[in-house]
Every structure is written in structure tokens, then in C-alpha cells.
Design a protein that fits this description.
heterodimer; A: 239 residues; alpha/beta; 6-stranded mixed beta sheet; 3-stranded antiparallel beta sheet; 9 strands; B: 296 residues; mainly alpha; 13 helices; 80% helix; 0% strand
Chain lengths: 239, 296
Amino acid sequence: MTPLLALRDVSLGYGGPPVLEHVSFDVERGTFCALLGPNGAGKTTLFRGMLGLIPVRAGRIDYGFDRRATPPGYVPQKETLDPIFPLTAYEVVLMGAAAHSPPLWPVGRRPRRVAAECLERVRLGEAAEQPFWALSGGQKQRVLIARALAVQPQLLLLDEPTAGVDPGAEAAIIDVIAALNRDAGLTVVIVSHHLRLVREVVQSVIWVDGGVVRVGPTAEMLAAERLEDLFGAAARRRV
Amino acid sequence: MSTLAEMLGADFLLRNALLGSVVVGLVCPLVGVYFVLRRMIFLGVALPQLSAAGVAFAFLVTSLAGVHQHGAASERALALVGSLGFAFIGLLVLAALERHGRETLEARIGITYAFAAAASILFVSVDPYGEAEMTHLLRGDIVTKTTANLRLLTAVLGSVAAALVALRKEFLLVSFDRDMAIVLGKRAALWDTLLYLLIGVTISFGVMTAGPLVTFGFLVAPPLTARLLTRHMLAFSLVAAGLGGATAFTGFYLAYRFDLPLGATDVTLSCALLLTIASGQQALRLVRGPRHPRRP
């Protein structure tokens, strides 16, 4: 079966020397995958490359779907969005639902219904009219997941969705994402620092370190012995 | 009351000036909304000043070439070309530096303002014959506005307002989350350029109509006031425009009734309204207690 995302000998960077070179791996349909690695290893570069936010300097990225018709669902870190915007939770989600409306075209009834449904799916239907800036960190992150779902994607990419939220909200966010993968068959790639949390739910791991990218099943990639080699004894306690 | 009735009469002598003032008051805040949301308020000072420098530069070049006579009918068109040219070039340079420059946005805007203010003075001082006329234009020639000028102003700024309303979901998306816009296949750079184009046109016509000070005042004060009163994006834009239009009308009334300078009256009134509403909200928050979170 064609993978949903295939990187073939890809090089990525920002103008100077490439941050990552000769990266090749597949993301299979329906998998829940974690993108892990130490700070500064190139996780964000790889993530932005997969989203098409930075140009591929060599090699190619093949998408197993029509990117124009069904763009990937993108969930940024909540801190990247300025709270100065006077938007309700519903209006933020509507941005995703209206992605297919052409310019000059008013947002129709269908995108409005989709936006409301997506808020319900992340269990925030009652917060629709709340100002986005006034929501808790966990709620904001769930609103952003709803916005990504409103695009009706085949691939969902999340950038550290549990960063800066309390433990209860972390679990709620991971539950929502896991349910989307399990029940709706959505392919998910999640960037995270939270080894213990993702270990319980992901099927495979993309490990980025020192410019090298390795991909494998969770049990192998997050084996306690391997993490101890990489991070020392403290890592064993974290997982 | 009789002053108000006189102002609303069909044969009011300064009718064109009144209508021009209200049009600028309505449309500048629609553009200013994006200045506030993109946190580039000081661009609202720098760009009108740059636009004014463009007016002075256009006069200087044609005066030195010996083809320009102050007071001629083409003077306004010439001023408009200079104003638009400088505003667009400034916007394009600032937009390019936003992606590739190393300095902070504040530094770039500060340098732009310093350059524009200094250049305006130098251009005017080098042109020995036109200082009075240019000073008049740079202050905004709203009182001497003709019916043809008013029609042009209404048509252009009306088109800007229509474009801002019609394309608001695209402008909002690239302003709120540029990465998301790119992931969705939107041409973010194109939408940014179009927004800057609309900003440039509004500022140029605002400066030509009411001068840099009033243009800056209407770009910033009504949106900041509206932000305190609204929770939705559309309401934010509409309330900002409404406040700008109402302030322009009331400012004109006060200036006419008490023989005050119009521009300074408009700006003072806008700022007084902002301070009153902000103080009122602060007082309410103190009375209600800390249950209500403070807006960012």
C-alpha cells in the first residue's frame, strides 16, 4: 500500500548548511507516530519540512493524498498565536472549516456546521462562544486540534500539543488525539518531549538526533536500555 | 443645534470637507485594525510620514526640473503620485525586511519614521517657492476639497473598504496564523502584498485629505477603542469604522462650532474616547473584582 507520507533522500535547512540530510522514511496510513529527539536536534526542521513550510533542498517528499484538496491538519503550539485577536473558539475553528471556500466567497452553512461538529469532537462544544484568549492552555490546544480536524485532513501533524499544560489537560489532549487515530483512522504525527505520555499511545517513533533520523516501532525505539544510552540513567526513570 | 442643522444642510459651504473627513474616519480604522492585530502600530506613524515625504519629493523633483508650477491643477495628481510611490516603496521594503532582516520591527519602523520626517523637511527646504503650498498639502487640504476630489476619495476608499470586507477571511488567516495559511495552500505572500497595497492606498489618500497626524490618529485610536468593546472580529472592524466615522463628524462639528483646528480636534477626540472607555472598563473591573480576566 502507498504510504501516506514518504520522504526520499530529503535535505532540509534554512539557508546555511542543511540541518538534516539524506532523510528517508515512510509514514503508513492509519499509524500514530511520534517525532522525538533532544532539543536542537532538528525535530522542528523535519516537522516544518513535512508540512511544506520550508522548501526541500534535495530529494523529495511524496504525499499519498491530494494536498490541494485535503491539506494536512496542522496544530501549532498555542504560544505561537497572538492572544490580541478578538476571536472566539468557534471562529478559530471556522478558519480551518473555511479553508476550501474560495476568496470573496462568504463562509457557507456547511463549513459552519463542520466547525461546530469539530468543537464537539474535542469536547468543547459549550466553549464555542468563549474568547480564544481566555481559554486555558489545554482548551486552546483542543480548539487548535478542532481547527485542524475542520480541514478534514488525512494526515494530522501536531507540534508539542502538551507543552505548557497541566497534567490533567495533557491526558485529555492525548486521549482526544488517540481517539482520532483509533476511531477515525486518522494518521497522526506528533512532536513531543513527553516520552512517557507518547510511549503509551504511539505505534512508531521517528527519532532525530545529531542530524540523523531513525524510524522504528515504539517498543524498540523507546526501549529503556536505548534511552539510557542516549540520555543517561535519568531517562529510564522518565519512561 | 443650529450649527448641526447648518452642517447637515445641502448647501453647507464645507460639505465636501465634512464628507471627506467622515470617509477618512470610516475607512482608516478598517485598515488600522490590522496594524493593531499585527502589532505594528508605529507603522501607522511612519507610513503617513513617508507618504508626506513623497508629496514633498514629487514637488521638489518637478520644481527643480522647471516643469511644476505651484497652484496648478495638476498639483494634486502630482502630490498623489509622490505619496503613493513613497508609501508603496516603504511598505515593500519593510515587508521584505520582515522576512530577511535581522533588526526588530520597532527598529525598522523607527528608522523609517526618522528618515521620512527628516526627508520631508529637507525636500521642502530645498524647494524655495513651494514651501507654503506644500506645508498646506502636508497638513491635509480637507477644507479646500472640491467635489471631484471628494468623488475620487469616496470611490478609492470605498473600494478599499469593500476589498477589506470581502477578503477578510483571507487577511485574518494570514495575520493570525501565517503557517496555517501556507499549509492550507494559501499564497500568504500574495495576501500580505494585497493587504499592504490597500494600506498604502488608504494612507496616501488619508494624508492627502487630512494630513499625517489625522491619518495616524484614525488608523490607531478607533481600533484600540473598538478592541475594548468587542469579542468578534467582524464586530471589531465594524465598531472601529463606526467610531472613526462618528469621531470625524463630531470633531468637525466641534472644530466648526468653536473655530478649532480640525485635525487636532479629531485626534484629541479619538484619544479622549479611548481613555474614557479604558478608564471606565478599569473602574468596572475594580468594582467587580478579579473574576473577570484582563484582556491581552
